[in-house]
Amino acid sequence: MRILFHCVYFPPEVGGLESHVYYLARALVDRGNTVDVVTSRSQPGIPDQEVMDGIQVWRTWFPSRTPAGWIAHSLASVPKTRALAKAADVIHAQAFASVLPAASGRRRSGAPLVATFHTSHFLVRAESGLWRPILGKLVRLPDYCLAASEEIAEVAMALAPGTKVEPLANGVETSLFRPVPPLIPKTDRKRLVVPRRLFPKNGVEHFVRALPIILEEMDVEALFIGDGPERERLEALASELGIGDRVEFLGKRRHEEMPGLLCSGDLAVIPSLMEATSVAALEAMACERPVAASNVGGLPEIVDDAVGGLFEPGDPKDLARAVLELLAGGGLERRGAAARDRVKERWSNDRLAARHLEIYSDLLSGRA
Prior knowledge:
18% strand, 14 strands, Rossmann fold, alpha/beta
């Protein structure tokens, strides 16, 4: 089967969506399929075309990391998408910004169109009176719709009544994300790891504000993995709160380093203010790390008392409570083992790829 993906961002970009699309594409190639990816030339110096682990990657013009930039990229990517669509059996739009160029490819080839709606960007724009009718039309365009969480699926179906949207959480490459030796040597302190890009929606500020409360009862330190526009302000806030010596901002790290970094902590914390299905949380769980997470979006679908704990988003006191209960209550190893078992059973990349191939085959045979 020849499969054409369209996705605004793709490695070497780092993020949950980028990781999801890359590992899904690689798994499909490993099963004997051909996968082309049309994406953006989002970083200077990256090639217009290359082969990554058997995936044919085609990069097109990208002006800026803004909604206007996404739209401009979508329009600029139409010629390449249409050209590749002629040979495609299935076209798959990864996120709402990819639906229009992918639909243009379908008009050229007649291949069925699948779309997956990811990320909090979709949820934010679904609340806008300007965006709601636009998103409703985008949800109606594909032949089959997927969503990265039950919340996104429900919102998408509300935007386009009568349209079926299947919730299908993103997967984890469990052969990569597994227990490995810590990349940063352990100390006598309990260590919290926060694998979040430093953007307001990821709620890292509330974790920083919770840390002094945690330190009143327990000797801990924290690692922040990820970069973003909030970094300077968060470093200043940590210093202002007197906890600068208990935090380390590691910045953007290569994907291959992530298992070792996650395994350098005792507990992962996901303090998001909004979230689809957090790939970072699933990756931590696959590394046998329990997760304390905000009770928001798709996080309650993957985290419960058996593998970690939940706290109210934007509430440093409740975040501190959840972290202290997990650290003081014991059972971190038991929860970590249960977390990995759960990921392997429900959210492995193997299962994700198998479900995608079922959908593609059903569409091609007319059953979907």
